[in-house]
């Protein structure tokens, strides 16, 4: 048996997509975007997102077009707009992030992990370091291999800072960011 420092089946670095390699050097916060109620809930892990301050402030995210959350947003009333929550994650939420990204098992679904409360905008992770209540603006649009989701921020909650740090993503791995 040989122990490898990296993934034994990964594409060698020089052969990887240069834009993805460049993007991988950007530190990104990790969040779960969620919508719906009870059995109609859907969520997805996003690290490709930003929040733009202004009048009104907006949250923009790149969502997997094949996710259940994308289906839910596409089916929303275009006039009223779907509501979502943007839940920031702490270091302790690594498993939750993997479950919502569809890369780790979650018997019963990812909402069985962690403690979730139903808010006015959708599911809220009870111990999230912070969350936003947002309303979809228009329909999600194609952006590269993703869907660009644009939403107006209607509510902001700031929770306690996790003692073990905020969850971030860098070069294909989770990292804890602390002050």
Outline the structure in words.
The chain is mainly beta. 11% of the residues lie in helices and 38% in strands. It is built from 3 helices and 13 strands, in the order H-E-E-E-E-E-H-E-H-E-E-E-E-E-E-E. The protein has helices at residues 18-23, 68-74, 94-100; strands spanning 28-29, 31-35, 42-46, 49-52, 58-64, 83-88, 116-118, 123-125, 130-136, 141-143, 146-158, 166-170, 173-177. The strands form 3 sheets. Strands 2, 3, 4, 5, 6, 9, 10 and 11 form an 8-stranded antiparallel β-sheet that branches. Strands 1-12-13 form a 3-stranded antiparallel β-sheet, with no helix packed on it. It has a two-stranded antiparallel sheet with strand order 7-8. It is globular, with a radius of gyration of 17 Å. The model has no long low-confidence stretch (mean pLDDT 92).
Termini Cα gap? 40 Å
Query: What does the main sheet amount to?
Result: 8 strands, antiparallel
> Would you count the extended β strands for me?
13
Radius of gyration based on Cα positions: 17 Å
| Poorly predicted regions | none
* Mean pLDDT across residues: 92
The structural class is: mainly beta
Alpha plus pi helix count: 3
Helical percentage: 10-25%
H-E string = HEEEEEHEHEEEEEEE
Describe the global form. globular
Estimate the strand proportion. Answer: 35-45%
Any chance you could write out the topology, listing elements then pairs?
Blueprint: H1 18-23, E1 28-29, E2 31-35, E3 42-46, E4 49-52, E5 58-64, H2 68-74, E6 83-88, H3 94-100, E7 116-118, E8 123-125, E9 130-136, E10 141-143, E11 146-158, E12 166-170, E13 173-177
Antiparallel strand pairs: 1-12, 2-3, 2-6, 4-5, 5-11, 6-9, 7-8, 9-11, 10-11, 12-13
């Amino acid at each position: 048996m040989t122990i490898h420092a990296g993934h034994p089946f990964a594409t060698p670095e020089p052969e990887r997509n240069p834009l993805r390699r460049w993007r991988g050097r950007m530190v990104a916060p990790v969040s779960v975007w969620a919508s719906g109620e009870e059995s109609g809930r859907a969520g997805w892990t996003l690290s490709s997102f930003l929040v733009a301050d202004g009048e009104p402030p907006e949250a923009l995210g790149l969502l997997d077009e094949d996710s259940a959350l994308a289906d839910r947003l596409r089916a929303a009333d275009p006039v009223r707009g779907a509501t979502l929550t943007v839940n920031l994650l702490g270091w302790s939420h690594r498993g939750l992030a993997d479950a919502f990204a569809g890369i780790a098992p979650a018997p019963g679904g990812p909402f069985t992990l962690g403690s979730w409360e139903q808010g006015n905008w959708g599911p809220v992770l009870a111990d999230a370091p912070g969350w936003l209540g947002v309303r979809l603006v228009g329909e999600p649009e194609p952006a590269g291999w993703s869907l660009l989701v644009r939403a107006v921020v209607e509510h902001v909650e700031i929770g306690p800072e996790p003692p073990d740090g905020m969850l971030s993503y860098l070069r294909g791995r989770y990292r804890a960011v602390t002050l």
